Amino acid sequence: MPEGPSIFLMKEQCERFVGQTVISAKGNAKIDMEYFVGRTLQEYRTWGKQSFLIFGDMTFRIHLLMFGSFSIDEQTKPDKSVRLHLEFKNGDLYIYSCSVKLIDSQSLKEIDWSADVLSDDWSSLKARKKLKSQPEMMVCDALLDQNIFSGVGNIIKNEVLFRIEIHPESQLGALPSKKLTELITEARQYSFDFLKWKRDFVLKKHWLAHTKKICPKCGEKLIKKYCGKTQRRSFFCEKDQKLYTKTKADP
DNA sequence: TGCCATGTTAAACT
DNA sequence: GAGTTTAACATGGC
Hints:
Layout: H1 4-14, E1 22-26, E2 43-47, E3 50-55, E4 58-63, E5 69-72, E6 82-88, E7 91-96, E8 99-104, H2 124-132, H3 139-144, H4 154-163, H5 177-199, E9 223-227, E10 232-236
Antiparallel strand pairs: 1-6, 2-3, 3-4, 4-8, 5-7, 6-7, 9-10
Helix pairs in contact: 1-5, 2-5, 4-5
The chain binds a DNA duplex through helix 4.
């Protein structure tokens, strides 16, 4: 469920609750549910994989982590597993196995909204600056860095690197300028492709590298390796994806 | 049954 | 204290 585009789709479905007043708030999230009863959902905003339900001074911050899910109107899981259930006049929102935090709405101002790859405010220039400032960093880690590419997850990472033919363990500082541009452009572009395919329930069949065994370009075996500081699995083709490194490997 | 995975955070270490 | 490693959490599919 939860890479940025999935959260974006969730927002689309939840926007019907904006302007609505909470009739009841329940669930096993460790927060003061009563605070929201009688209050109106003023805005529903997302930043990468995070969702913000804004109620005046306070905001629910929801993160679906790896296994989170939601449903609208119909409770789809056992009652005790509902993390958050908001009842509105025009429907019900149920959210499961996620992280729910209550935050001060003021803190939203500190978020760099331009880092969200799906946002209209996305700034490729800022992304470039952030990437430039960490030349030692591996591209596989950079793509998963939510401060740089908010919303990008492991699937998008693998597909982007395959598309632009860069080895996941390449270092940012060693990338030619043109490749750096491709990295930034494609991180956003693939996220929109992901969104489109996810909307039509055809995402998986468009995967070229992620979870695949054979390279669709050259037919060679794909490598599966846990790369970088993030130690997330990477699927890549040693033949088609070039390794750019500046510093020598271990002495 | 056991393992793994679209993710993050906090505690426990060096 | 900084930086790093480990553990924890939660669910569904193979």
